[in-house]
Amino acid sequence: MAAIRRxxxxxxxxxxxxxxxxxxxxxxxxxxGLTDEARSSAALTVVGGVRTSIAAYRTRMVLAGEDPFPxxxxxxxxxxxxxxxxxxxxxSGLATVRAVSEAQADAREVSAPETYGWCYFxxxxxxxxxxxxxxxxxxxxxxPDPAGGLxxxxxx
Length: 156
Known about the structure:
alpha+beta; three-stranded mixed β-sheet; elongated
């Protein structure tokens, strides 16, 4: 008895490719926004972690009778405020910190985002002492603002 060779016809292959293309056209747009949501969640987590570390540092310093907020060099020094140094900004991937003025911090001004991942303002001489840290990114965060739009990453 001779062996019968069977293969897919060109029509069958084209039907399968068409079905896969239709499924991809439906599925890909649904999951496309997940990257933005993941980045927004990571940004909220990272900013919260940095601010919590600064608050813990502040508590230690107030109890020790020292200036409450870390200077820029303390903030970026590994182990002083953060155990492993500054984390990367989820939008730019940069862990570098730029010192900004009070006016820039109040406006959440973004500058040199290709060089710095964070902006930091500290004034231990004011009454009360004040520090502001934020992401140095103009990207939209995906986090809703009260006006019905979305907050910028620098507003988190």
